[in-house]
Amino acid sequence: MAKKPRIVIIGAGMAGLTAANKLYTSTGSDHLFELVVVEGGDRIGGRINTSEFCGDRIEMGATWIHGIGGSPVHQIAREIHALESDKPWECMDGFSGEPKTIAEGGFELNASIVDPISTLFKNLMDFAQGKLTEDSAGSGGDACYYNFAAKAALKDCTSNGGFGNQSVGAFLRRGLGAYWDSCKDREELNGYGKWSRKLLEEAVFAMHENTQRTYTSAGDLFNLDYEAESEYRMFPGEEITISKGYLSIIEHLASVLPPGVIQLGRKVTRIEWQPEGHKSIQVPNGYDSRPVKIEFCDGSSMLADHVIVTVSLGVLKSGTGQDSGMFNPPLPTFKTEAISRLGYGVVNKLFLQWSPNGNRPANDKEKFPSLQIVFHPPESELRHEKIPGWMRRTASLSPIYNNSSVLLSWFAGKEALELETLSDEEIINGVSATVSGLLPVSKHHKEDKYNSPEFCNGNVESCDDNGVRFGKVLKSKWGSDPLFLGSYSYVAVGSSGADLDTMAEPLPKLGSTDSDHHPLQILFAGEATHRTHYSTTHGAYFSGLREANRLLKHYRCVGV
């Protein structure tokens, strides 16, 4: 009897389990294939990792459903009733309330300062993402300043040779400069200490840039390609979190697979494939005609007809470098060059527990406000010296839902990596110093502040009973985790959407001279293989479906 084709999926995250689910549940395919999912870690989910902190359900990785209109993730969550829960969860009330924007030194910024810059930044990003064009942008009323700035930035870019190798960061800064040029001779601000109007506006703009860094995982927006930004697509509708946790989606996808299909603790060290014709592989009992050999860290190996590789772009970058040998023979140049050119960044989340008075729960009047934080630049002589550099590029510190005692900040780039190296004590001291740096500079200003308790400076253990006490700390560590080496992909300057398409191409290709006997030996899935939905869980989902369908189509076409 002929052997069933063996399909091995590397990685039990969204892409891998979607592919496995599709292959197993398709009509008759459970008898057609031998299916194995190997996962290097001790859990399923990949960059989805639902956890609990101080009694609240939180997400260490993927957090949001980015638009509910047409999202397959939202559809699954609705079908399995994962959008309903009696247990409190992260962002259960969405973006609750208006955040307070506090500038270093304790100055709460009013809307007349924050809103124009926020609108400018949004309009500039809308231009970059193709949501606004020169023709569609309005020109009347207050919109004229913002759209003039965007159009001036566009003109500046195109007059310098078009958008080839232009960055989103450069476009944004050109837009800010054009905005200032269009708004000259304005009155200087009073009552904000040493903050000038221009310094405050630039700091608010930088706050939005820092938020954008966490959205894209680009540690520096000057590395984020402008031209490709307009190809990225989001689903319409609101963005929501999943009440029962993102892991509920993963568990649903895995639930159809028989016991033993998913093998945990099976870290792949090497994939041997045969791009140039077929050779039988020697095994203990003779020879096996399967063309791919997968080797694991424990010295064991497995043969396969097809391997769907769903590891992160960070792992692929590490595994295809000059001194590494994840693939033997190495992947073709067109594939390794795409892997090298694309961007892949680190985004981490920091959760902290707080209480206004020892361990006593906060009451309604003592709730921690949702803060947008505006800092002096790291090189500024006006900066608060005790605020650490890794805190200066976070944009917010907020409860994970209204009245929660759990606070959340997001970090990207080198600050996210530095966060991973810090002890809990160093983190608590750094956050405490930052909060103290946001305290009002005088009694007059203090009376005008938000209705919240006093914060304490320095080590949490030294706080008195009247100060805010930061207690437990929990942080993600995606950058140093060898199974991920980062968070998600972006299109870097020098790469393009075409590189994402290249990432998705199987090896050997169907119809190539090398694929006559054993085509589709290595297939690729994961968020970094989707041209328009990269960096998202639904992009990973779509990619898993794509590769499963590729194999289903192949076998049905050849009559197996």
UniProtKB/TrEMBL annotation:
InterPro entries: Amino_oxidase (IPR002937), FAD/NAD-bd_sf (IPR036188), Flavin_monoamine_oxidase (IPR050281). It is found in: Cytoplasm. Keywords: Cytoplasm, FAD, Flavoprotein, Oxidoreductase. GO terms for molecular function: polyamine oxidase activity. Pfam families: Amino_oxidase. Its cofactor is FAD. One of its GO terms (cellular component) is cytoplasm. Gene3D superfamilies: 3.90.660.10, FAD/NAD(P)-binding domain. It comes from the Eukaryota. Belongs to the flavin monoamine oxidase family. This is Putative polyamine oxidase 5-like protein. It comes from Gossypium arboreum.
